[in-house]
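Quick one: Esterase from Mucilaginibacter polytrichastri, structure tokens please.
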Amino acid sequence: MKKLLFLLLFISCSAFSQTIRVHIDGVLHTTDLDGRLLLLMSKNNKAEPRFQINDAAGSQLVFGMDVTGWKPNTTQLIDIQAIGYPLERLKDVPEGDYYVQVLLHKYETFHLKTGQTVKLPMDRGEGQHWNEAPGNIYSAPIKIHFNPAKAGEIQLSITQTIPPIKQPEDTRYIKHIRIQSKLLTEFWGRPMYIGANILLPGGFDEHPNVRYPLAIFHGHFPADLEGFRTTPPDANLKPDTSERFHITGYNKIVQQEAYDFYKQWTGPKFPRVIAIEIQHANPYYDDSYAVNSANLGPYGDAITYELIPAVEKQFRGIGKGWARFMYGGSTGGWEVLAAQVFYPDQYNGCYAACPDPVDFHHYTTIDIYNDKNAYYPESDFKKTPRPGERNYLGHVLTTVKEMNQRELALGSRTRSGEQFDIWEAVFSPMDADGYPKRIFDKYTGAIDTSVARYWRDNFDLTYIIKRDWPKIGNQLKGKIHIYVGDMDTYYLNNAVYSAEDMLKKLDNPNCNCVIDYGDRAEHCWNGDHTQPNYISRLRYHQMFIKRWAEEVKTRAPKGADQQSWRY
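--- reply ---
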């Protein structure tokens, strides 16, 4: 009876409310399509609505629904109950004039090694961005008057396709490598590739017999190697304004830093190493977090045992664990610490700046072990939302619930391609349907304690280091460096505090770890007390390559070549 009443209510709401009907041009719709159909609405035309969806206060509107087997010559109806962000339902949109467009984020079908079949958006060279993914189809923005209480339909037609992305070309110093991973291909049931952008050292061609250490920079998807240019800043560069750093002309600062790095890299006394940035975008995110995962597959093994040896073989790397080290910030900060812990003999040092949560007692502002709800602290009467993002003064910019509401609008079943969903995809066990098992209900915030225990045992780095120290301590001592601002934008410093407390207590052997904090520094402070964050964030290569080149003198095995690459 309840189901019948709900159905009648749903039909009634749909029949007497404004809805959106979407048609695809026949040229773009010749086969059945799967994906996430997104309705984008904006009060302004500063940019296309698809480029105005974010966690900031100025975000415009998105509403999403799954489509499966969308057949040619048929339409889709986006009804008034469609879930959205920042407003929860399409019915909540105030009457008014809006610029609107629709976009279909296409999904492919994967037949996993585990036996499950899933539909996911494969990365197409853009680093998993639904609004830029080549092959996605969309409509041109039009201005409409929307009234959710008015009966009738608004017709929108998808007529455009996002074009392919041109691949970067090799230069004298910058090279590119892409390999098919046997391990990942077996897991995903289709050819899967990983790659790297490579920066060759000065004098590489002039010293054909030298073999080099490998400096591995982890982070979000790098379309090409950034922060390196062989020419001075563009003379006619129009100054931009950095909203994050409140600086006009930041684009010129970025170009100047890149040119200065080139001069250091090729100048005297700079350690000669091969620097690489790894490309491991996948169906869930712009990178894999560089570990083996139930849902993403064996990316840790693929990077460590397939990609890195391929780079070293082609570009004369030393090819030994003592001659590899890692550095990175944010996602990359977590990755380098995780890779060092899970592959202690394969890497000889990690420099982790502003790492994603390294202790899940502080999963940003959530304690997944003791809290019952991710969105609100337990209380008899109050319902105070957990903060999700702040500025360096502590002013809250958005909440955990709002961040997850955006993800829920962009994709169901952990398919948004955003931050909380990728953590869930990497850290969670696989659910019965082949998608990641939820750590918490995306709508209510209720935490699943069984999933929390799985996260702890497999990916809580603080817990794992303490648990496994008797086995891996001698391989890790002196290799761990963590840096974070004490006003990190995403509260990541809280997990580092817990990690530091644990690391200081380790013995047999002592950890000899480095933990450092930046006073009032937001995301992503990396340990440089001499420069503002907007400068130091541009100097990862020159900071950590020099630092490691000194430290390795005490950690290299007896007889290791530490001289030929220091020309």
